[in-house]
Model the fold of this input.
Amino acid sequence: MDNIRLACAACRILIYRLCNRIRGHQPPAPKKEKQVVCIGLSGSGKSTALALIAGEPIKEIQSTNGFHVKDVILSDCILNVKEIGGSEKIRKYWRHYYGGAQGVIFMVDGTTNEQELETARVAMFDALKDPQLCDLPILLLVTHQDMENARSASEVAELWNVRECQICFRGS
Done:
């Protein structure tokens, strides 16, 4: 009896699709998928920011050990964001996760001290030297902007000499 119901359901679906084709209705084209890698030191806010963008709850966010993939659905495409943990132990393995990336998001905590900010700068420039990332577009995201002592994105860009970075990593 279950096999008969299953066969009837399959027939209904096929008839529905056939009728839609006859009437000129086509299924919507699938959205293009883009692969993005998201890196930054531990505590920079990668997991929280991606959860917010993906519309997920942020109450129980934990530091990433290894990597997570989040699908961020936009109006014209789906971003498959591969978030990679930022602890010192994991950073040496970042390069193993770069394959297929079409863009880079680097997150830095705007409230971090000078030493951590320099560590983050070195980590970003080291990552961008990799042949898999060197020609990709990069978004430098300075997080924790709601905190009173946070550096602005323009302050971090100036400290890190980002203009030079843009020139040097375009193959010039």
About this structure: The radius of gyration is 22 Å. The CA atoms of residues 108 and 143 lie 6 Å apart. The first strand starts at residue 32 and ends at 40. Confidence is low (pLDDT under 50) at residues 166-172.
